[in-house]
Write a structure and sequence with these properties.
- By secondary structure, this protein is α+β, with helices and mostly antiparallel strands.
- The protein has a domain at 59-89 and 100-160: 2-Layer Sandwich (Alpha-Beta Plaits).
- It has five helices and five strands.
- Strands 2-3-5 form a three-stranded antiparallel beta sheet. A two-stranded antiparallel ribbon has the order 1-4.
- 10% of the residues are buried.
- [4Fe-4S] cluster 2 binds at residues 77, 116, 119, 122.
């Protein structure tokens, strides 16, 4: 049996490679010296506000008019930090002889931001666009109980939600906008047809 070559060394280092003691420290000091000569990039927050990306996850805003109390956001939340209370109301029929309907009425919508991990699942799963991300992040509290934002405070965050990006000019018109435009044109045509004719229009 042949003996292993002594050139490889006892530590398993490649043959012919010699490390100078303290070279790692010298390299670290060289990086420090290079950094010391560069211009600092410190921003004096809060006097200078940071430039945040457009999709920053700061705080969640609630557009209450779109909420149907479907509870989907609360069920999908992995931290169980969304609290929703509601009750049912009976809606009278819209036409004579119609049937009464029942609808959910929102009583409470709260988010505990001391538990929230900002995953954004609630915003993504909402089928009616009732939750939106706001880039605001300055809502720290000295009392952890104040981090439970009720629906009134969640609604105030909606004023800080940035506008959505512009659509691609070559893209198709969204179905919602097309349906709303069609309904508006239909109502405008009906209103114009119901208006009485102007004097002298029939005398031709």
């Amino acid at each position: 049996m042949s003996r292993p070559s002594s050139a490889a060394g006892s530590a398993g280092k490649p043959a012919g490679r010699f490390t100078i003691p303290g070279s790692g420290l010298a390299k670290g000091l060289a990086v420090t010296l290079r950094t010391m000569t560069r211009k600092t990039q410190t921003r004096q927050y809060p006097d200078v506000q940071p430039e945040l990306p457009p999709r920053t996850r700061g705080v969640i805003g609630l557009f209450e008019e779109n909420c149907t109390v479907c509870m989907l956001c609360a069920r999908e939340c992995p931290d169980w930090c969304i609290y929703i209370d509601s009750h049912k109301e009976t809606v009278p029929p819209a036409t004579p002889g119609g049937r009464e309907r029942s609808r959910n009425v929102l009583d409470r919508f709260a988010i505990d931001f001391s538990l929230c991990m900002y995953c954004g699942i609630c915003v993504e799963v909402c089928p009616f666009d009732a939750l939106f991300w706001s880039p605001e992040f300055e809502y720290a509290e000295t009392d952890i109980r104040e981090l439970v934002h009720e629906r009134d405070r969640l609604r105030e965050w909606m004023w800080t939600v940035p506008a959505p990006p512009a659509l691609d000019p070559a893209a198709e018109e969204p179905k919602e906008i097309a349906a709303a435009r069609k309904a508006a044109d239909k109502l405008a045509a009906q209103a114009q047809a119901e208006q009485p004719g102007r004097p002298g229009e029939g005398d031709a």
